[in-house]
Amino acid sequence: MHHVGIGYDVHRFVEGRKLVLGGVEIPHPRGLDGHSDADVVMHAICDAVLGALGEPDIGHFFPNTDPRWQGAASRIFLQEIARQVSLRDGRVVNVDATIIAQQPKVSPFVPAMKENIALALGINLNRVGIKATTNEHLGFLGRGEGIAALAVASVDLTR
Length: 159
Ligand code: MG
Description:
CATH superfamily: 2-C-methyl-D-erythritol 2,4-cyclodiphosphate synthase
Bound molecules: magnesium ion
Radius of gyration: 15 Å
Helix content: 25-40%
């Protein structure tokens, strides 16, 4: 049976943090605030896969009150969720995400993000979609106050 899930995440920009999207460190004067590395792309994909499993969101598994996850690379979360899929004899069919960022321009980093996500999930590169769009200067995303990401996942489960 094919199961689908949806994920959404947003983090605000702050001074003095690295900007990490899809596991790629992107040169930018500001980074995203968060307990972990605040990688909105990986977080949205985690929630999409968890949704396909019928599980609660990423915060349930990796609470932002747990010092173990302070500054953690979100690749760890994605790897753990992929393990959860394997434990059920399932497999991730594909994931697809859209990054909403007014700035910086993230498209040059998309190929590297896809590689990181495919590796963390243990799937082929052609099963990972990543797109980027601006918010046409509208609202908080359009003012460049933060970055958001949407994701969907398809998971094949036999039980
Ligand atoms: Mg998050």
